[in-house]
Q: What sequence folds into this?
């Protein structure tokens, strides 16, 4: 897609700090990192989200994510890592081209400091379970 920033990076029209590249997958440093070493892994072909990526492309992406994650860990000596993949605006997706965030983490770095889990109302978990299960 010509108006997609990540497609333009794939095509070399926009420069990037490429960490890894093969025929299907590209990984590069995020220019606005949560922490130094924050990288992205994207499929070279334009797909929008987890909802439209094919299995083969997804498998290639996650294998590269693992490989790059190990390199980031050694490279920046991080103490942890978040692997995040956002889908649509409600989930924080800003670029409509599937991407996996590899975010190196350090103790007390201020990112994702809470996980506001909420217990189900009585009976609600089974209802939600059934609503999801019938679609698998
Ligand atoms: Zn794209």
A:
């Amino acid at each position: 897609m010509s108006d997609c920033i990540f497609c333009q990076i794939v095509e070399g029209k926009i420069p990037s700090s490429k960490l890894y590249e093969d025929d299907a997958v590209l990984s590069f440093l995020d220019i606005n990192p949560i922490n130094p070493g924050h990288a992205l892994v994207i499929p070279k072909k334009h797909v929008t989200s987890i909802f439209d990526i094919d299995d083969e492309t997804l498998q290639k992406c996650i294998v590269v994510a693992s490989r790059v994650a190990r390199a980031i860990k050694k490279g920046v000596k991080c103490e942890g890592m978040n692997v995040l993949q956002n889908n649509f605006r409600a989930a924080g997706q800003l670029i409509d081209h599937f991407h996996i965030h590899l975010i190196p983490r350090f103790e007390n770095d201020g990112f994702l400091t809470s996980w506001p889990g909420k217990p189900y109302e009585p009976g609600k978990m089974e209802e939600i379970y059934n609503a999801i299960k019938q679609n698998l």
Q: What stands out?
A: Residues 3 and 91 are 22 Å apart (CA to CA). The domain at 5-133 is CATH 3.30.428.10 (HIT family, subunit A).
